[in-house]
Amino acid sequence: MKYDVEEVIHLNDLSFIRLCNEKYGINKGIYNTIDSWFYKHGIKNILDRRRYILSFLEFLMKRLKTNTRIKFGHGGLSVRLQEYFFEQVQQPV
Fold first, then answer.
1. Contact 84, 56 (CB under 8 A)
2. Separation CA 12–CA 42 (nearest Å)
């Protein structure tokens, strides 16, 4: 399913969470954890945070070479968030 990122980030909260569940297989708890992690790392604007969330989930799909549900083992979500953030977002100039 292709989508327009700029359109998707403006969905209401429930619709955005449902899209993440349908496309990436993450439940509301995982979504909230990801959202909170980005917020705690300085991404305060909700639209920017949603862009990062979608980018992170696409990053995982490519990294895990899957097009089905994303699964995390114990502590795996934190590790994946750190990998994404420090490889993709915090690249040195």
1. yes
2. 22
pTM above 0.90, yes or no: no
pLDDT at 67 over 80: no
Please identify which residue in the block is written with the tokens 């954890």.
Answer: 33
Residue 72, φ and ψ in degrees, nearest 5: -125, 135
Q: Say yes or no to pLDDT of 73 above 70.
A: yes
Task: Write down the domain spans for the chain.
Answer: 5-89
Dig out the tokens for 23 from the structure.
């496309």
Secondary structure in 3-state letters for the chain: CCCCHHHHCCCCHHHHHHHHHHHHCCCHHHHHHHHHHHHHCCCCCHHHHHHHHHHHHHHHHHHCCCCCCCCCCCCHHHHHHHHHHHHHHCCCC
